[in-house]
Amino acid sequence: MCDVATVQKIAHCLGVNPGKVQLNEEQVVTRISGQKKSSVAGFATILESLAQESKSETAQNSKASREVEAQVYQWIEFSVLYVAPGSKDKHVSKQLLADFNKLFASKSYLVGHFITLADLAVYYAIYDLVKSLSPVDKEAYLNLSRWFDHLQNRPDIHQGEPLLNFTTIYLHGWATGTHI
Amino acid sequence: MIIYTNEGNPLGLQLLMLVKHAKRQVQVQLVNLNDPKYKDLLVLPTLQLDNGLSLFSPAAIAKYLLVDEGKQRDEWLEWSATLLAPALAHHMAVGHKADANALPVLNALVKKLDDSLQSSPFLAGDKLTAADIAVWSLLAPEGTLKGAQNVDRLRDWYGRIKVLPEVQEVLAEQPLKDLSFNALQQSNRYGGLYHIPLKRLSVADAGKLLVDTTPTVADTVTDDEIKAAQAAFTYTAPKEIKEERTVLPKAGQRNVLITSALPYVNNVPHLGNIIGCVLSADIFARYSRSAGYNTLLICGTDEYGTATENKALAEKLTPREICDKYFELHNGIYRWFGIGFDYFGRTTTQEQTDIVQEAFKDVLKAGYIITESVEQLLCQKCDRFLADRFVEGTCPHPGCGYEDARGDQCDKCGKLVNATELIRPRCKVCNSAPVLRSSDQLFIDLPKAEPYLKDWVDKSEGGWTHNAKVITRAWLKEGLKPRCITRDLKWGIPVPHPGFEKKVFYVWFDAPFGYVSMTKRYTKEYQQWWQPVKGTDVELFQFMAKDNVPFHSVVWPSVLLAINKGHTLVSHIMATEYLNYEDGKFSKSRGIGVFGNDAQETGIPADVWRFYLASARPEGQDSSFSWNDLAARNNSELLNNLGNFVNRALVFCEKNFNSTVPEVVATQDDLILLALVNRELRGYINSLEKAKLRDGIRHLLAISRHGNGYMQTQQPWVLLKGSADQKTRAATIIGLCANIACLLANLLFPYMPATARTLFGQLNAKQTPLNADKPLATLLLPAGHKIGKPAPLFAKLEQSFIDELKSKYGGDQVAAVQSPGNAAELEKAVQDQADKVRQLKASTKDKAVWQPEVNKLLDLKKQLEEAKKATPAASATPAPASSNGKQSVQDLEKAIQEQGDKVRKLKGSTKDKAVWQPEVNVLLELKKQLEAAQKAAKAAPAAVPAPTPAPAATSSVDPTQVKALEDKIAQQGEKVRTLKAAGNADVWKPEVATLLALKNELAALTGAPAAGGQNKGKKKK
């Protein structure tokens, strides 16, 4: 979730050295990096600092304009406030799945039409929840599943983890083909 | 720009201040997220910019509207949104969401603010930034800082910001007093911010900076409530609750007929079944009786059908004998649970046959019966028609496709299925594919009854539970179809129709009439209940789990409407959701879960079970049975809350007032308590009138909680040692508490009848009727009333005991993991734990986080060590027995017999595999040894007259050992030869050494020189 491991994964995606990542005394994730050992606290603020240092496509996308930057930030904050903690709550997680499914009905990425840090943050925050879905559930959240599957197939994102299965072909003899 | 927000949302203030700070103009629009117009809004407040961009994160908005003010500002912005706001939401929450842990967390956060203002006048340096605004706007509503101590810098900062003209301007538009953190609940569809766990900070306790501002409930009591409480609290001799021999409905009175879904006779009921129908019905019936309504509670076992026939075949009994056997089982279980049926009957009675056949003739006469030829599934292997429940296959409903759908209903989509429509059907017994055969069957024409049914549902569904309405509506929406009411079986009620004599009625037509026939067994006047005369109203409450709803809301009412003879139709369908067992399903076959008879074996009193099940009743949604929850509720609610209050009140009365209830001279404090009690009493009555049993318990416990709080603040034990005035005051307090204890006994009675009776005994009082029209506490025990001997009502459930039960009923899995001595599994556990610890240590410095995990690891390592020690020891013990030839065989046989007895005894005394498995292993090991020893003994005679006898030594030589060594030597020799052939000397040399050592050992044992030496000797001769 929005913790040390996620920051490290995203740093890896962006091709940036994460430096030392840990929880501070407030249990907030903190990054200490660079020669001056400067420290940054807070998941969203850390992700911004990573984007500053990265030359990757995702990082460049995330800084495309002030509008994009603001939207990327709000989704990162959303993943901290709602997605990560809400995934563990039966009711909140259902609403989250429905909301994201609705969002992705009309777009391929959260912000703009390119991959940004917003997608990464939500992807890692919602990973466990999506993993827990049954094939029928995944089919019910078709748009979300499509977005998720698209992201997980990028090697910089799955980082060697086994891919989640979105195939529904074995479910019904009469449903011919997959939805992805 | 427009800010969309909801009323009272403090984050709306934040946005307004930020926008003003950025010197922009903005309109505020209050919206409701439930309004379909705003379905695209995710979180409130949302700011819609003039360029069409919508943003809902105040931090993102601040960053967008304002220039970059540095990393420090950004950190504070995130801090205020992700730490401060959730902590405030938790702290300000009311009711069941209130969180006592929020205050210490908030203290630490406030301390951090105060500390950081030490080095600079504003949070992010010398100038006011968005960070200050974000934090300020969160602290301002509800006066978080009011009365706070030792935060002077923070107060100073707060004051400086408040006087700023731009802030004043905003506050004129949005007064602080209108804001509340509870408004966040309506700010998104996630129920606010309560899903965010409070972070337990590892910094030292910040002390008490903020005052605990939670208003006490006492502040909310109005004068009217006090007056009402005072007026009602008088003594009137209680009416006796009269119990008539036969309860019959009476005109002009409230008549309540209660049924509980008929349990199928072959199934041993589990806790879910019990709370789903019989227990719920009983609690409601007990309430209804004590509220003075004419109440009849009817239930019984449903006994006809194929399942019984099969069971009978399997147990080599007749169906009748099977039913007799299982009926007693049900009856015993319900009796143990204290279910007070007025009549607990069965469907296999003459009354049932008469009533069902009569009803059929009526339905036939009314023209609702159709004859159709039906294709039925015939299993050729089992040579019989398959009843719906004996076919499984793939669900035919589009979009479902569940592979294990039953022949009557799909467990996955819940829709009804015709067995013949299943895709790839299979016989549940033999798994082979059945074939279709046709035969004539009778159908009830539900479509013909549909209009009447719809009218009736529109009128009646007001009193049904939500799920019952939804399920019924779904059925009606899909349209009714004719339903088959006959079956080709023997065990059932014969169909009284020409050509159908060999068929019986199907459960849908048969079982519901069981309610009527059982009432007939109870009284000849059963028609007064089921076909009441005009002017007498009977309310029918039917309790069931949700899977039974269609039979009670659609099928049976249709039949009764078709008959059209003024039958009592259900007015209240009380359907529960499902109860899970520790987040899984109950499963008899896997031994998971607590079944009716198990509950008895646990030694936990039936009343505690009743209380727990009622408080975990799956009312609005599925709920789970959990052992820890059971223990927690028993210990915290029954023992520490209810039991504690009642016992304290009575013991004070006994010890200080000679067991005589003192006079109550009520002061303001006492009247406030009474007013609060009256509130809960009203809640209790309202809940139980609607059979909301779970809420009823909540109100009941709230009363004793008020009582405990009252005693704690009044401290009668102090007053008793004081002046005469103080002693009179103490008398009032004790008198009042004793009276509340008596009220509690009355309220407790429906849930825990045995406990309530004990309590009435201790109070020396009788049960008094509840006044549902005027739910106010009265003086039940007048001054001078002598009470009995108080004693504790409840016992503590220890964690160790609960853990034991948990593993006992948790299925095999749990038991296996806990079994000691399983070194391999332990090793794996140690490894996993070590990985976890490494990860934790890497991610945080906080010792508090990883220390417990480290402790767990050390513990596991210790266990592993012990297990390793134990394993060789166990197999070593019997070893000495084998050191001596023939005797060892006898010894072994004896040891095996002893061990066998031990195992049998253990198995008899406990089901716990973990206990007896190690002993069984020892037994098996012994048997193996015996086998080896016997073989060796047989081989020995051949081995003894070997060509190289050593006469002196033979007598004491153990032939088994010799044989074993010889075998070993042969093996080792073979190994050496192979190795030597391969060449490498480094490899074979040590093996040769081993060989020589073995040979020497043999020589020492037999007294004969080793093979090599022997040859040399011969040559010398």
UniProtKB/TrEMBL annotation, chain A:
Domain called GST C-terminal: residue spans: 45-169
GO CC term (a single one): nucleus
PROSITE patterns: GST_CTER (PS50405)
Keywords: Elongation factor, Protein biosynthesis
Molecular-function annotations in GO: translation elongation factor activity
Entry-linked InterPro entries: AIMP3/p18_C (IPR053837), Arc1-like_N (IPR053836), EEF1E1 (IPR042450), Glutathione-S-Trfase_C-like (IPR010987), Glutathione-S-Trfase_C_sf (IPR036282)
Pfam families per the UniProt record, alphabetical: Arc1p_N_like (PF21972)
Keyword Phosphoprotein: no
A single BP term in Gene Ontology: positive regulation of DNA damage response, signal transduction by p53 class mediator
Protein name: Eukaryotic translation elongation factor 1 epsilon-1
Species in which this protein is naturally found: Drosophila kikkawai (Fruit fly)
Species classification: Eukaryota, Metazoa, Ecdysozoa, Arthropoda, Hexapoda
Primary gene name: AIMP3
TrEMBL record, chain B:
Keyword Signal included in the entry's annotation: no
Compartments it resides in: Cytoplasm
GST C-terminal domain boundaries: 66-179
Compositionally biased region (Low complexity): 870-883
Any one GO molecular function term: methionine-tRNA ligase activity
Catalytic activity, as annotated: tRNA(Met) + L-methionine + ATP = L-methionyl-tRNA(Met) + AMP + diphosphate
EC number: 6.1.1.10
Keyword hit for Ligase: yes
Keywords from the UniProt entry: Aminoacyl-tRNA synthetase, ATP-binding, Cytoplasm, Ligase, Nucleotide-binding, Protein biosynthesis, RNA-binding
Pfam family, one: GST_N_5
PANTHER family, sorted: METHIONINE--TRNA LIGASE (PTHR45765), METHIONINE--TRNA LIGASE, CYTOPLASMIC (PTHR45765:SF1)
This protein's name: Methionine--tRNA ligase, cytoplasmic
Organism the protein comes from: Drosophila kikkawai (Fruit fly)
Chain's gene name: MetRS
